[in-house]
Amino acid sequence: MAGTVNRLRCLALDGRPVQTANGTGIGSYTSQLIKALSRTDLEEMHLAWMPGEKPLCLGLKAHYWTLGRDNRLEQEAVPGWVEAAGAQVYHLTQNGFGWPRRLKAPLIVTLHDVIPYLLPEAVRPSYLSRYLEEVPGAIKAAARIITVSAKAREDVCHILSADPGKVTVIPSAPAAIFHQRDKAVAARFLAERYGLRGRFLLYVGGYNSRKNLQTLIWAFSRIVRFLPDRQRLVMAGARGPNTERLRQLASALGIEKELIFPGHIPRRHLPLFYAAADLFCYPSLYEGFGLPPLEAMACGTPVVASNSSSMPEVLGDAALLVPPEDTPALSQAMLHLLTDQGLAAEYRRRGMARAALYRWDDIARRTIRTYEEVL
Question: Is residue 142 located within the same domain as residue 194?
């Protein structure tokens, strides 16, 4: 790149998604990015933080600035805070929401996906309204846009008419807690803590229509009688309006006893669910990145996922990929991995190797390089 690259010494970043989007991909991305940046030689980091919350322990001498969720405060107070802090750039990790119009420092936006444009029916009305209102302006105002996959970059440039020259791909990655663990130990923990006994397949994530869970339940119903180990399907996630619809579908298919809905799982327990599962299933219609399959791979669990959006790019040949709405293909892939031990072992090996390619320390260095390119 032409021109002089200046060293970044002081960064301002909106850390509120760590609290307000806890348990989501954006919350995880923001949390892990802050922690990884704290391990670099960055001298100062100033974080906007929700009032009344205990700041995250980062290791770096970070400075916390209390900021509520009031759009007026974001517009009136943030530019002055960033300038007073001496921050050279300001990074918004939640798609540019709340971008300050009078900001003097360069604005960096991480735009994770364009799902509200592609699948508006799968998005909460309030989120859809805010996204459509704020994101196009944030994209125009940003000095640089970070996307988490090449597919997301393609969609951002095509749908939002973003300048390709200012869109950089930097992926996400599993957190350090996601690693291989003893399967028997994990199973004992789940039996004691959750009353979950026996072998199972696993899905982790939301229950909205974009996740394509009806197809997963249909596919599971086709193979359940052929499973010699009588595996059940565990669908972990916060209960919502669609939970009962999924239960009703399972009942109509006669497999309600084979489905388990444990509800929201604390993040610290997720690695044990992944480790104890015989198979992780993720037939999502669209993902900007798709973190749960990589988390499962890091824990040594074979994965079946859809071949749509960013999934082939992120997962490569380390998962069995099928068309998301092809129920027979999904059933067949699931059955193969559950009944062929050699095949399952091969995909466990591939998955762990693939997950190891995504490292937060590398992501932090690439992100800092992006900051410095816009100075």
Answer: no
31: amino acid identity, one letter: S
Q: Which of 208, 261, 229, 214 is nearest to 24 (CA)?
A: 208
Q: Which CATH number is 158's domain given? A: 3.40.50.2000
Residue 214 lies in a domain: yes
Domain match, 23 and 47 both: yes
Angle at 150 between CA 117 and CA 28, to 5 degrees: 75
Total domains, the chain: 2
The mean pLDDT value of the chain amounts to 93
Q: Write the CA distances from 66 to 17, 18, 46, 186, 249, integer angstroms.
A: 13, 14, 11, 39, 45
3-state secondary structure of 160: coil
Q: Residue 56's pLDDT is what?
A: 67
pLDDT tens digits, 226-257: 998 899 999 998 888 889 999 999 999 999 99
Q: Please state, in angstroms and rounded to a whole number, the distance separating the CA atoms of residues 264 and 240.
A: 10
Residue 322 structural domain: 183-355
Q: 95 and 116: one domain?
A: yes
pTM, full prediction:
0.94
| Predicted confidence (pLDDT) per residue in 37-59, tens digit | 999 999 999 999 988 776 766 65
